[in-house]
Amino acid sequence: MIGVFDSGFGGLTVLKEFIDKNSPLSQYDYIYLGDNARAPYGDKSPEVIYKYTQEAVDFLFSQGCRLIIIACNTASANALRKIQQEFLPNKYPAKRVLGVVIPAVEAVMEELEKSANLKKENNKIGVIGTRHTIGSKAYEKEFKKRDYKLIIYSLACPLLVPLIEEGLIKKVAARMILKSYLRKLKEKKIKILILGCTHYSVLFEPIKKIMGKNVKVINSPQAVARKLIDYLARHPEIAKKISRRKKRKYYTTDNVDQFKHIGEKFLKEKIINIGKASF
Ligand code: DGL
Hints:
InterPro entries: Asp/Glu/hydantoin_racemase (IPR015942), Asp/Glu_race (IPR001920), Asp/Glu_racemase_AS_1 (IPR018187), Asp/Glu_racemase_AS_2 (IPR033134), Glu_race (IPR004391). The chain has 12 helices and 10 strands. The chain is an alpha/beta fold. The longest helix is centred in the first third of the chain and has 19 residues, at about 75-90. The protein is globular, with a radius of gyration of 18 Å. Bound molecules: D-glutamic acid.
C-alpha cells in the first residue's frame, strides 16, 4: 500500500492524480490520512509540524504502507528531511517517505528547459504557500541546488487554507483575498508560479485567470504523480512490494461524516471505506 498524508483535505488533490483511471499509479492500493483535527499546520512551529508528521508516518506504516507520500508542502518543507535522515534509518530502514517540494521544483526546471523564452538567467519564479512553508525557504534551498540562477519571490497566503477547508472559496470575499495576495506577485512580473500548498490546487483555475496568460502556473499534484511514476520505475524493488488491488482506504483524525462530505468535493469521487484514526 502507498500512504498519502496531509494535514487535512489538500492531499486529496494529490491522491486524485494517483487514482485517476488513466494513470499507471491507479493500480496500487492507497491509504489516505488527513489530520483534520489538528489542521491547519501552516501556522504551527516547525517542531510541532515535525511531531505531527512523525505520528502520521508511524500510523501509516502501522497500517501496512511501504511508501508514504507527504502530500503537504508544510510537512514536506519542515519535517521531511529529518524524517528521511533520522527517523527512517532508525525505525523503518526498509521503508520510504517522499514529499512534494522536489517534484514542483523539477517541474519548473522542465518548464525552463523546454521554453526558449525562459532560458535566460534571472527568471522570476513565484511561490505561494503557508506561513511555515514560505518561512522554511525549502523552495529557495532546492532551487539553489540547480543550474539556473533564478529570482524567487515567495509569499505566504495564510488565509487561503482556512477558506478552502471551510468550503468558502467561491465567495466574493475569498476571491478578493486571493486577488490581493496574487497582485503582489503580478507586480514582480514573475514568469512561473508554484502552488506550494496542496490545498491551492482547488484554486488552480481562478489563480491562472488572475495571473494571466503570460504566467505558467505549476500545479504540484500532477508533478508529484509524474515523479512517483518515475520513482517506482527506478526502484522496482520497492514497486514490486506494493499491493495492487486498487483498494482505497481513508482515515481522518476528526469527524468521519464531515471528512466524507468535504473530501468528496476535493476528490470528485465517492469516499466509501473510511475510519477514524487516533494516535
Ligand atoms: N496542504 C498543506 C500544504 O500543502 C496544508 C497546510 C496547512 O495545514 O496549513 O501546505
